[in-house]
Each structure stands twice: as structure tokens, then as C-alpha cells.
Amino acid sequence: QVQLVQSGGGLVQAGGSLRLACAASGRIFVTSNLGWFRQVPGKEREFVAGRNWLGSIYYTDTAKGRFTLSRDNAKNTVYLQKNSLKPEDTAVYFCAAGRIGTINSRPSDYDTWGQGTQVTVSS
Prior knowledge:
Layout: E1 4-7, E2 10-13, E3 18-24, H1 28-31, E4 33-39, E5 46-51, E6 57-59, E7 67-72, E8 77-82, E9 91-98, E10 110-113, E11 117-122
């Protein structure tokens, strides 16, 4: 079974940048939609950005202009570059892979998840 292993994250000051990585044990990103989500305690997992199987990338309004999703096919790795971070970006971030579709923004659209990584933005 394909696994997703995340790295990156940590503590950063407001206005700073971080890059999250999500490495797959197989070429799942070629045949699946992929997404980045985040979650804070007591709230539902929130979609941040995604890439469908045709290569189209989409962002929420919160992420647009600040976050960039990219993929390295040779490394089977996807990245989420986050710039101009704000304290409200503090959350556990998850990468995920799931069924193909035009835009998949619900957690239920994904069946393979990374372990999550904490991002804390201090003011």
C-alpha cells in the first residue's frame, strides 16, 4: 500500500516562509488527485490547495497568492511552499491522495493521508 510521509513544518514568525514536503512510496500522484489540508483542534479538516490528475492546481482564497503547490515527479514528492505566513495559518497540515476528479476539496475524497506536520506561526 502506498504511504505518504511528510516533512517540513515547525515554528516561524509571522511574515516568514516554510515548505512542506510529502513523499510517496509509489507513483500515486500520477494517477490520483492530491491535496493539502490543515486542521486546528476542535475544527474540521480544512482544504488548502490541490492538484487534480490532469495537472490543474487550485487554491482556497486563504492560500491564493501566498501558498504554492508543486510536484517533483522524479522524487514522487509534492510540496507546499507557504509565504507571508500569518498566526491564523497555525495548524497541523496534511497531504493526501485520492480519487480523480476536477476539484476534490472534501476530506472524504481522499483515502491516503500523510501523518501530519505541525506549523506554528508566532506573532
